[in-house]
Design brief:
about 0% strand; globular; Carbohydrate ABC transporter permease; 2 strands; MetI-like fold; 16 helices; membrane; transmembrane; MetI-like; mainly alpha; transport
C-alpha cells in the first residue's frame, strides 16, 4: 500500500515538472480558400468600381477617363444629397425599431417558456424568405385598391400608404423590421444563453426581480451582441435596394429614393455607370466610417474575450 502511494506521489511530481502543452494555431494555409474568395468577390469588384467612378461609360465601348467630374457632379446633385439623407434616416429608424424588439424577443426565446421552441421556429419564418419575395408579398397586402388598407379606411385613411413620404417610409421600416428582426433576435438569443446562470442566482438571493436582473445583468452582459447587431443593421440599412425597388420605386416623386436606388437609376436606367460607381463607392465609404465610429465610440475595439479560440 505504501509503495502504491509513493509511486502516485512521484508521478504527480513528474507531471508537475513537465512543460505545459502549447496550443498551436492553424497555419495560414487554412485561410487561403476564404482569402481567395474574399479577394475575388469583394476586393477586386470594389477596385473596379473605384476605377469606373473616375470614368464616363455607358456600358458600350471603352470607358473614358473623366477625372473627378463624377464626384463633383455627385456633391452638386440635390437628389443625391437627399438620397443620402434618406438612407441615413431609414437606417436610424430601422435600428430604433428593430433593436428593442429583437432584444426582448431574443431574451424571451432564450428562456424556459412553454412551447418556446415552436413559437421561435414560427417567428423565424420571415428570415427564410428572400427580400424580393417579402417585398412582393407586402406590396400585395398593402395595395391601396385591393389590399388591407382599402378595407380598413378607418385606420389607414384613403388607404394609399404609398402616396405620402411618411406613409412610404413607414412601410419600408415596417417591412424591413418584419423580415430582419428575427435575424437579430437569433443573435440576442445566443448572447442571452451565454450569460452565466450563477449571476441570476446571486441576484435572486439579493432580492432582485426579473426587470432589475434584465437591466443590471442581461443588458451589460450582451453589450458585444448589441454592438455587433447595430453594425449589421447600419450596413444593411445603407445598402438596402430591392425593398425600395419593389415597394415604392423611389416614390412618391423622389421621397424614398435612397442612395442605393439612385445608384440603380443612374447606372442601369440612365446608362451612366461612372456616376453609378461613384455613388456605390460613396456608400461603401459611409457605411465603413459609421461602422468604425460605432466600434470606436462603444469601446468594442478594446474588449477582449475570455475565449480567444485557436
Amino acid at each position: 500500500m505504501t509503495t502504491t502511494v509513493t509511486a502516485a506521489v512521484v508521478e504527480r511530481r513528474r507531471a508537475a515538472r513537465r512543460p505545459a502543452a502549447t496550443v498551436t494555431r492553424p497555419g495560414f494555409v487554412w485561410a487561403v480558400p476564404a482569402t481567395l474568395f474574399f479577394v475575388l468577390f469583394a476586393i477586386v469588384p470594389l477596385v473596379l468600381v473605384a476605377v469606373l467612378s473616375f470614368t464616363r461609360w455607358d456600358g458600350l465601348g471603352a470607358p473614358e477617363f473623366a477625372g473627378f467630374d463624377n464626384w463633383v457632379a455627385l456633391f452638386h446633385d440635390p437628389v443625391m444629397l437627399k438620397s443620402l439623407w434618406l438612407s441615413l434616416l431609414l437606417t436610424l429608424l430601422g435600428v430604433a425599431v428593430q433593436t428593442p424588439i429583437s432584444l426582448l424577443l431574443g431574451v424571451w426565446a432564450a428562456g424556459p417558456q412553454r412551447n418556446r421552441a415552436v413559437l421561435s421556429a414560427i417567428y423565424f419564418v420571415p428570415l427564410l424568405l428572400s427580400a424580393t419575395a417579402v417585398s412582393v408579398l407586402w406590396r400585395a397586402l398593402l395595395d391601396p385598391n385591393f389590399g388591407v388598407p382599402s378595407q380598413a379606411t378607418w385606420l389607414f385613411g384613403d388607404g394609399n400608404l404609398f402616396g405620402s413620404q411618411t406613409g412610404a417610409i413607414g412601410v419600408l421600416v415596417f417591412v424591413g423590421a418584419w423580415q430582419f428582426t428575427p435575424f437579430h433576435t437569433l443573435i440576442y438569443q445566443g448572447a442571452a444563453r451565454a450569460v452565466p446562470p450563477v449571476l441570476y442566482q446571486a441576484a435572486a438571493i439579493d432580492g432582485a426581480g426579473t426587470v432589475r436582473q434584465f437591466f443590471h445583468i442581461t443588458l451589460p452582459q450582451m453589450r458585444n451582441a448589441v454592438i455587433t447587431s447595430t453594425i449589421l443593421m447600419v450596413v444593411g440599412g445603407l445598402t438596402t435596394f430591392d425593398t425600395v425597388l419593389i415597394l415604392t420605386q423611389g416614390g412618391p416623386g423622389t421621397d424614398t429614393t435612397i442612395s442605393a436606388y439612385y445608384m440603380y437609376q443612374k447606372a442601369f436606367k440612365g446608362f451612366d455607370f461612372g456616376a453609378g460607381s461613384a455613388i456605390a463607392l460613396l456608400l461603401v465609404l459611409v457605411a465603413t466610417v459609421i461602422s468604425l465610429l460605432v466600434v470606436r465610440l462603444s469601446g468594442y475595439d478594446r474588449m477582449r474575450s475570455t475565449s480567444e479560440g485557436l
